[in-house]
Amino acid sequence: MNTHASLLRPDVLPALPQSVYRARRQQLLDQLPEGALMILPAANLATRSRDTEYPFRQSSDFWYLTGYQEPEALLVLCKGRREGEQLLFNQPKDKLMETWTGIRLGQEAAISQLGVDQAFVLSEADQRVPLLLAEASEVWLPLEDEALYHRYLGWRQGVRRLQKRAARLPDRITDLSTLLGELRLIKQPEEIELLREAARISAEAHCRAMRNCRPGMYEYQLQAEIEHEFMLQGGCPPAYGSIVGAGDNACVLHYVDNRDALQDGDLVLIDAGAEFQGYAGDITRIFPVNGRFSLQQKQLYQLVLQANELAISLVRPGTTLDAIHQAVVRCLVEGLVALDLLQGEVQQLIDSETYKTFFMHGTSHWLGLDVHDAGLYRQQGQARALQPGMVFTIEPGLYIAPDQMDVDSLWRGIGIRIEDDVLVTEEGCEVLTQGVPKSVEGIETLMAGGDATD
């Protein structure tokens, strides 16, 4: 029978081959005990206002396991089930609804295109899942999903109503998020290629912003340059809300208003990344609005750049993010003392955390399908050792608040962060974001019309 595959939008089909997603589901099943039942919901549409919705973005866990790009679905894995271990409940084909909101995959095509064993209409879940639950040894759910947990309780009650005293329900429920996060943490070769492309597109967009920056522009105009490049390079949305902060606004870590004018003599910080087929780029660069760093801007910038390059040089299997962060802190504190922005003995300033006035955030976070990706940072109470295939950011920064009255006014209102994305390799690391310059010379050359090289 015709599965209508030719009528499917390209973004409905998995970006990667179905074999990749089926292998991921099998890898998850292999780690579940016999008889376990796993239930994972897709994302739902979110109302923006009245009868309009935000653009749909699939749950990252659901995306990781299925590649499926429609809302309102359930993935159910049943370890050891003879009729098939991998089940999908999704929306039915509906000509009227598809006229309004686009082609749906439906059940028949879900089996052929997604590689699940069985697919059912979503409305059947309340009848079928309790039957699966009655045969399960234990249940795995993302426990932070309150709606799903309450639905699960309803399914349990349904089993009791149907089977009464004969009901045999699992008495163990386990959070799925940790196990799935650990699977997502080590990137496979096909994921690394997508992350490289997300980083490449992000880097080109940052270069475009540098080339086009002029005094008198507005922050939102630089945001438009960045996000226009994302779309030109493959219809990529931002992986997160783009931050474009000029002058004092660069000292606000998650500034997103992006509405002020760019003043001659100020720096402008851009923290923005493209999402390519679900995978995030995450780059921060800061550069002078007029194309030339002042003395104080350059001194502070060089210090942050030194910390950034030191951190990257330390990335290799076996080290930890904690160790890298501590090295960054020491580098920044020594530099701040040399610039007389901090006074005292370096170790004492580190121990007392006095430096947090100027550097108050961490150096790194995991990167993948989420910009702050899944995966544990500590194991058995200890910082985990880095392994090949891990991808994370390196992003030291210094922020001299405009109301920091105990420092010379020449420093006030300067906020600097330099962020790169790195992949741990067998020998060390690969910097995925090297396509955008970060040296003073490289930035000034690019802004003067030269090549985008360091």
Automatic annotation (TrEMBL):
GO terms for cellular component: cytosol. Residues 16-149 form the Aminopeptidase P N-terminal domain. The keyword Manganese applies. This is Xaa-Pro aminopeptidase. Gene3D superfamilies: Creatinase/methionine aminopeptidase superfamily, Creatinase/prolidase N-terminal domain. It catalyses: Release of any N-terminal amino acid, including proline, that is linked to proline, even from a dipeptide or tripeptide. Signal peptide: none annotated. Its cofactor is Mn(2+). The keyword Hydrolase applies. InterPro entries: Aminopep_P_N, Creatin/AminoP/Spt16_N, Creatinase/aminopeptidase-like, Pept_M24, Pept_M24_MAP, Peptidase_M24B_aminopep-P_CS, X-Pro_dipept-like. PROSITE patterns: PROLINE_PEPTIDASE. The lineage of its organism: Bacteria, Pseudomonadati, Pseudomonadota, Gammaproteobacteria, Oceanospirillales. One of its GO terms (biological process) is proteolysis. Keywords: Aminopeptidase, Hydrolase, Manganese, Metal-binding, Metalloprotease, Protease. Belongs to the peptidase M24B family. GO terms for molecular function: manganese ion binding; metalloaminopeptidase activity. PANTHER family: XAA-PRO AMINOPEPTIDASE 3. It is an enzyme of class 3 (hydrolase). Its EC number is 3.4.11.9.
